[in-house]
Amino acid sequence: MATPTETRRRGRRGGKLNKARRKPPVDPPKVVDGGTTTTTVDDVPDHLLQDILLCLGSSACLVRAAYACKRWRRVVTAAGFLDAFRSLHGATHHVAGHYHTVDDAYDRQAAPGAFPDGGRSFVFVPSDELADTDRRRFSSLDFLPDCESGYSWELADSRGGLLLLTKMKQRTGDGSPARRHCFTFPDIVVCEPLTRCHQGILCPPDLSGYQCLGVFLLDGDGDGGRIGMSNFKVICALYDRYLLNYILPLSETLACTFTSDSGGGGWRLPHSTAAGGDVTLEHVRLDATSFVGRANGRVYWEIEGDEDGDMLVLDETTAGFSLVTFPENVRESYDKRTFRIIAGGDGVAMRVVRVINNDLKVFAQLDGDGEWVLEKRVWLPAAARGLPGYDEGYFQEQNGEAIVVAASAAYVLLTPPVEDTWLFSVELETMAVERWHERNKYAGVAYPCELPWPRASQATDADQISGRRRC
Amino acid sequence: MATGSGAAAAAADAEEKESGSRMITLTSNEGKAFVVTEASARQSATIRSMVDDGGCVDKGFPLPNVDSKTLARVIQYCDEHGNKEAHTVDERAALAKFDKDFIAELDADKAFLYDVTMAANYLHIQGLFALTTQCIADTIKGKTPEEIRTAFGIEYDLTAQDEEEIKEEDTHA
Q1: Which domain holds residue B58?
Q2: HSE (CB half, 13 Å, CA atoms) of A465?
Q3: What part of A 318-377 touches B (C-beta under 8 Å)?
Q4: Which of B68, B115, B162 sits opposite A39 (nearest CB)?
Q5: What per-residue confidence (pLDDT) applies to A63?
Q6: Considering its fold, how many domains does chain B have in total?
Q7: pLDDT at position A29, please?
Q8: Hey, are the CB atoms on B137 and A52 less than 8 Å from each other?
Q9: Does residue B89 lie in a domain region?
């Protein structure tokens, strides 16, 4: 019964492809026909369609919906819709998926077969709502330039829809303890998987011999701070080794920032140490640093075996380094495998995740007076007992502490002290312990990658267009 | 008869208490009358404000934008939510089950689902509107643009320029 009316209406519209904008149906397109009526989604007014699309809760779905037809695209790209969507769902819902890496300290037994193309040390796990076509594009980074033999692109950071990769020596399969936190300034590539754009960034010649602590992506200064291929920054934390008076081996930190074209372009090298933003240490100490996290515009490294409990800190805004010490209750029985820094938010400047006597503890530093409080705790041996594959021997006291493999604002990935292939995670919101998530298959950091927003149909923004052409 | 403000308030209170059992007539655009309890009718913010403003309760409310079939279904929802208690866990669970069955049935008839959505919007029945819009949104989830067009019977109307832009994004290399 519904079909004849529908066909007629479609036929009418289909014949006028050049019509700039479809007029809203003048008459209610209801045909009273023995009490039945036919309504299509086209009869639903724009403001209701907007309410419906706001219910989607994931920008992955929204991007696809925006390409269904002109009208839907117009509704999604209309002024105010984006803000309404964001205020309803927050930023976390734009995630297309996560790139999971595997840490050096662990082998790949935990995820056999998960890394099909051999050289690559990460795998893309899409979020549930992501459409199949997008899954394929995020999964395949085959547009990246080739590396010379023995090298591969490794994931170093992600931000918005961009990934930052560094060219690293491929790991040898013999399980040699590669100290990944100690390497010379690498070549870098920044890419956007969805559009398959990439930009290679070469190390500045002056700094090629410097040791690298890490490279990180930052928002650019243009485009309202929205990160994109034409609007991003890379900050590189380095140190230089030298001998003071030919005897004392010292290292001095420095950070340099690369800005994409719209922000002026190129590397900005540090001016001098006059700003007081650098730290000089005996170089054995800097050689022994490990990245432990990033929060509140700062990057943190622990210094192994440091008696004073100092940590090295890089301020992302000023590119200056300093040393900080955490309070005793946070630092207690310190070990880098049981210490991670994660982002705060909502009145919390930052959080520290610790394992102390197999208690997983979350400490929060409050905004304002900077006071540290113990926010949450869960005793891992008891919490993990019910999980599939649990073994009574995993948490025996003589084996030591559970190990933090990775931590994000949402969850912590752990292994028992003696079995590094048995991964489990703790959801920080609820402190619930589980093994069923896909994330528990990969022993390493997971980098989220977001979907960009659909652009309005009449994209006339010169920056956007030139940015796209350049790729 | 209400001489003082206190007495007026008391009278209003009494009226309020009575209101649950008062009957209200809603008339569809086909002229069919539906008699419902006031508690049921108050699920609609539109009718609620008309009643509270001292509208013509006795004469009933004509609803020129809603047909009989749609109104009957909307009333089914309002009766369930207006006339039944939702204080205990069991009562709430029963209501949740009603919602689930209600929307599952609607989902099978998309044209009707849109009608009920528009009526819920017109009558400002918040719970029903949230239920139907979420149901439509769930149909969009996880689909490609092509699948969305098929599911919703949407005509492909993108211009050559739109297509080129989308294609560029799809095959960027």
Answers
A1: 20-141
A2: 8
A3: none
A4: B115
A5: 78
A6: 1
A7: 43
A8: yes
A9: yes
**What is the CB neighbour count within 10 angstroms for residue A154?**
20
Whether A471 has its CB under 8 Å from any CB of chain B: the answer is: yes
What is the distance between the alpha carbons of residues A117 and A263, in angstroms, rounded to a whole number? 36
SS3 A118: coil
**Is B142 touching A (CB cutoff 8 A)?**
yes
Query: What is the per-residue pLDDT across A234-266, written as a single tens digit (0 to 9) for each?
Result: 999 888 877 777 777 788 888 888 988 765 678
Give me the residue from B140, B155, B157 closest to A61, CB to CB.
B140
Closest-approach residue (CA) in chain A for B121 = A48
Structural domain spans, chain A: 90-450
Q: What is the ipTM of this complex?
A: 0.84
- How far apart are the C-alpha atoms of A36 and A6, rounded to whole Å? 13
The count of other CB atoms within 10 Å of the CB of residue A262 is 18
Nearest-by-CA chain B residue for A194: B169
Residues of B in contact with A56 (CB under 8 A): 137, 140-141
Domain at B29, CATH number: 3.30.710.10
Between B173 and B26, whose confidence is greater? Answer: B26
Q: Is the CATH number 1.10.490 carried by domain A90-450?
A: no
Instruction: Dump pLDDT digits (tens) for A365-406.
Output: 998 888 899 999 999 999 998 898 888 888 887 888 999 999
Interface contact B110, partner A, CB < 8 A: yes
Global confidence as pTM: 0.64
Q: Taking CA atoms, what residue in A is nearest to B122?
A: A48
Between residues B61 and B2, which one has the greater pLDDT? B61
Closest CA to B140 of A87, A129, A42, A88: A129
